[in-house]
Amino acid sequence: MIVIFFLGILHLSHTDPILPKKSGGDYPDANKVMEKLPQTYMLQSLGNFTNIICGYQEFYTSTKGEKTFRMYDF
Against a cut of 0.70, is the pTM above it? Predict the structure, then answer.
């Protein structure tokens, strides 16, 4: 009886009906996220300027010590 109980637990641990492997989950493709980042920054920047007619965003790298940062100006 105990052996059947443990075999049942092992079987349930291998089959996870709540999170199927082919669902994709909540994790988007990293390449698609990196492509959309400039658009996201632009939308956030435009939110701070409600009366703007035209604008552009400049991306650059900044180095502080040994670390390199990606920066942007609007």
Answer: no
